[in-house]
Specification:
Blueprint lengths: L5 E4 L9 H5 L1 H8 L13 E4 L2 E4 L9 H5 L6 E4 L4
Antiparallel strand pairs: 1-4, 2-3
The structure holds iron/sulfur cluster (2 copies).
Length: 83
């Protein structure tokens, strides 16, 4: 899938609840893969690190599911300017 010209921005509202981590389709796909190692979370598109959700800009497809699901609206989808 082509990566949209968007990125996900985090704010300081995040409580680390993990809702975004569980709704992310990339994470779901990874978890379903036979070779998924629960200790290897580096490929996850979003994960909670030190009490805050952290987006992996390499694997995130900017679908916005995490932002729509965050109970405190901590994440936002930002359109990137096209050059
Ligand atoms: S970004 Fe929102 S949904 Fe994700 S851990 Fe933080 S508060 Fe929870
Ligand atoms: S925008 Fe990125 S981190 Fe958020 S649900 Fe979609 S793929 Fe996952």
């Amino acid at each position: 899938m082509a990566k949209a010209n968007k990125r996900i921005e985090q704010s300081n509202l995040c409580t680390g609840c993990g809702v975004c981590v569980s709704v992310c389709p990339i994470n779901t796909k990874l978890r379903k893969a036979d070779e998924f190692d629960p200790d290897d979370t580096a490929k996850m598109a979003i994960r909670v690190v030190d009490g805050k959700a952290l987006v992996n800009e390499v694997t995130c497809i900017s679908c916005g599911a995490c932002a729509r699901s965050c109970p405190v609206q901590s994440l936002s989808v930002v359109e990137l300017a096209t050059a």
